[in-house]
Amino acid sequence: MTDRPAPGGPAPGRPATGGPAADGRRLARRRKRRLAVVFVLPALLLLGALVVYPVLFSFGRSLFDADGDRFVGAANYAAIVQDPATLKAIRNSAVWVVVAPTLLTGLGLMLAVLTEKVRWATAFKLVLFLPMAVSFLAAGIIFRLAYEQDPDRGVLNAAAVAVHDGFDDAAAYPTARAREGHGLTGGAGGPYSTAATVRPGGSIGLGFIGVAPDAMPAGAKAASDPAGPAGAAPAADAIGGVVYLDFAPGGAGTPGRVDPGEKGLPGMKVEAVRDGRVAATATTAEDGSFRFAGLADGDYTVRLPAANFEAPYQGVHWLGPALVTPAIIGAYLWVWTGFSMVLIGAGLAAIPRDALEAARMDGATEGQIFRKITVPLLAPVLTVVFVTLVINVMKVFDLVWIIAPGPVQEEANVLATRMWMVSFGGGDDQGLGSALSMVLLLLVVPAMIFNVRRFRRSGA
Fold first, then answer.
1. pLDDT greater than 90 at residue 124
2. Are residues 181 and 285 in the same domain?
3. Does 451 fall in a domain?
4. CA angle at residue 160 from 393 to 335, to 5 degrees?
5. What are phi and psi of 207, to 5 degrees?
6. Domain count, the chain
């Protein structure tokens, strides 16, 4: 006797699909879906309004001319590769993408490893991470001031000048110039030479102007008589003279002559030149006097070398056309080094210590452990940090816009700043600007996809 299914029950070999319990489960799933849609909908609306719509609008706008009235197709994209300023921005962006993430990842790795070996690791990490709390606007202003050419304002050039002057003495009188028509020839900045020759036994006065009273050396004394102390004439084998500031207080006195109240210029190097060769050298005393002794008979020209009048060293022109991009990258490194160090430090803390200890017991050096164990185990973290920084670098705008002075702005431009200048900064060509924004998006999207996939694999 065979069993038969009850009336209304499932057929033999087929699972039950109905019933109040199954209907309840389906109803619960529908409610959960509706509830999920309710919670996700605001985010989707914001995503569409702030991301999807602007992307679609920018793409459409990139197909029209500057006024947006005439369809030009891909003409704006063709103009990108024909515009020298845009090509320069693309080149600068390439430099940023190669240099900044590489340096930041390397610095972060080095600092993360070193902080494990210091006692105050937490305080050290905090100090390095603090710039992340500073906005790019504030960081740009800080570094714009730090890179100032004037050593009295720019801290970097103040340090550079201090180091330079520690090894090379500054010129004594950079602003001094010879009084015209009174025996000296030569252009601004020297060298200056006497127009007439001098024979041994003679003396000469060399008057200069252009030295401010507060720029005079503290030990400068009243200028001496060119004939020598107490009116004594130079010996038969000597030439004497005085280098002085040919300007008396109140403007009194006669140009070309040492007057009461006029001071000598001490520390000035003077040369006696005969037949194009330097026969003797001297340095002026506190009263500006000098004397060449032991000279052979003949005609000599007295010369003051240009080293006396060289402009003082002003440091490095950080924001000039040649260094502006590396200087801005330096500011970016200051802001983001802490970020890189903290992320890599977190990955370093997750490395199994038994592998490191086993390598040490096998006789591996710290360098070998770092190269063959630490770096390979940190490869996923290093990749994430590098790609994240590449994405961030592609969008850099604030630092470039703030730090680069107007005259060299074009030399420092990246794609983001070029897009702004073309669209709103005077170019008034939103068609070309929109095309640049689409190019920037296409360059960023692959790195973003790579990062998302990396995060998913690490989460799995």
1. no
2. yes
3. no
4. 25
5. -95, 140
6. 2
pLDDT of residue 426: 75
**Last residue within a domain, chosen from 308, 334, 359:** 308
Instruction: Concatenate the DSSP letters of all residues of 234-303 into one string.
Output: PPTT-EEEEEEE---GGG-S-TTS--TT-BB-TT-EEEEEETTEEEEEEE--TTSEEEE-SPPSS-BEEE
66: pLDDT strictly greater than 50: yes
Helix (H, G, I), strand (E, B) or coil at 52: helix
B/e letters for 373-405, b = 16+ CB within 10 Å, e = fewer, are bbeebbeebbebbbbbbbbbbbebebbbbbbbe
Q: Could you tell me the CA-to-CA distances from 193 to 143, 177, 221, 270 in Å, in that order?
A: 45, 12, 24, 10
Q: Write out pLDDT tens, residues 396-413.
A: 999 999 999 988 998 999
| Same domain membership, residue 244 and residue 138 | no
**Mean pLDDT, the chain, integer:** 84
User: Phi, psi at residue 244, to the nearest 5°?
Assistant: -140, 165
| Tokens, residue 35 | 């509830």
Burial status of residue 139 (CB atoms within 10 A of its CB: 0-12, 13-18, 19 or more) = buried
The residue segments making up the domain with residue 364 are 83-159+318-428
Both 369 and 260 in one domain: the answer is no
Q: pLDDT higher for 180 or 404?
A: 404
Whether residues 93 and 196 fall in one domain: no
* Percent of the chain predicted with pLDDT > 70: 92
